[in-house]
Amino acid sequence: MSEAIGTAPVGIAVVGAGYWGPNLVRNAQATPGLRLEYLCDLDVARARAVLGGYSTVRVTDDLGAVLAAPAVGAVAVATPAATHAGIAMAALAAGKHVLVEKPLASSLEDGAKLVRTAEDAGLVLMLDHTYCYTPAVSHLRDLVRGGELGTLQYLDSVRINLGLVQADVDVVWDLAPHDLSILDSLLPDGVTPVSVAAHGADPLGCGQVCVAHLSIELSSGALAHVHVNWLSPTKVRTTIVGGSRRTVVWDDLNPTQRVAVYDRSIETRDPAELGVEARNQTRVSYRIGDMVAPALPEREALRTMMGEFAAAITEGRPPLTDGRSGLRVLAMLEAASASLRAGGVAVPVEQVATETSTVAVPA
Question: Among 29, 41, 126, 250, which is least packed, fewest CB within 10 Å?
Answer without folding.
Answer: 29
